[in-house]
Amino acid sequence: MHRRPGLSARLKLTLSYAGFLALAGALLLAVVWMFLLRYVPDNSRGLLGISPNRYLLVHTFAPAAAVAMLFLLVFGLVGGWILAGRMLAPLTQITAAARMAGNGSLSHRIRMKGRQDEFRELSDAFDSMLEQLESHVAEQQRFAANASHELRTPLAISQALLDIARKDPRRDRGELIERLRAVNTRAIDLTEALLLLSRNDRGNFARESVDLSLVAEEAAETLLRLAEQRGITLDVTGGATRTSGSAELLLRMVTNLVQNAVIHNLPGGGTVTVHTEAHGDTSVLRVANTGRRLPPELVPTLIEPFQRGTERVRTDEHAGVGLGLAIVHSIVRAHDGTLDLVPRPTGGLLVTVRLPGTP
Question: Are strands 338-343 and 349-356 parallel, antiparallel or unpaired?
Answer without folding.
Answer: antiparallel
